[in-house]
Amino acid sequence: RRQRPSPPQSPLEKVAAQEGLSLPELAGRWFLVGMASRCSYLAEHSHRLEATAVTVTIVDGQSLAISTFRKLDGTCWEIRQRYLPAQAHGRFLLKGRGYGSTVEVVVGETDYSTYAILYYQKGRSISVKLYGRTSQVSDAIADKFEQRVRAVGLNEDVTYYFPQYGFCDSADEYHILDGEL
């Protein structure tokens, strides 16, 4: 009797989480510097990318509360999300609404003071984000990010860099979107 072939490995299974990840050191303000993704919306609207800042807060010692600040049509919005701990340290789940909308998140690499590289997977689709403590990172860090992007099968054709100016620090009460908490 033939054995059924094992399911193909998900791209994220090959990605190692930051060893000994310290959540308190990860907390604070980050700037979205770059992103690699095959998202068709991103490809079509890459000319409209807005400066994006993120504040990470640790909840209950193991979950991450993520507040993303970005402009939409000139207005500052805050998008709140909760990354729940997954089975392994450094891996999280972002639960969306509806079946199959959960996003797996891996904190792949960070030095806490200058950069962090995070991986996101929804279904079979993977994306990689580069965050900096400032809106610019060194060429060495950008090169490292591009190596990590190629390692998961993406390339420079689907890598986008974000503006380094025009950040939002807050949003008024009418421009807050709460994700699943």
TrEMBL record:
Record domain Lipocalin/cytosolic fatty-acid binding: where: 27-164
Main location: secreted
Localization per record: Secreted
GO MF terms held by the record: complement binding
InterPro entries on file: A1-microglobln, C8G, Calycin, Lipocalin_CS, Lipocln_cytosolic_FA-bd_dom
Keyword Signal part of the UniProt annotation: yes
GO biological process: complement activation
Stored Pfam families: Lipocalin (PF00061)
Recorded GO CC terms: blood microparticle; extracellular exosome; membrane attack complex
Signal peptide annotation: none
Domain of life from the UniProt record: Eukaryota
Keyword Signal attached: yes
Family listed: Belongs to the calycin superfamily. Lipocalin family.
Protein name: CO8G protein
Organism: Rostratula benghalensis (greater painted-snipe)
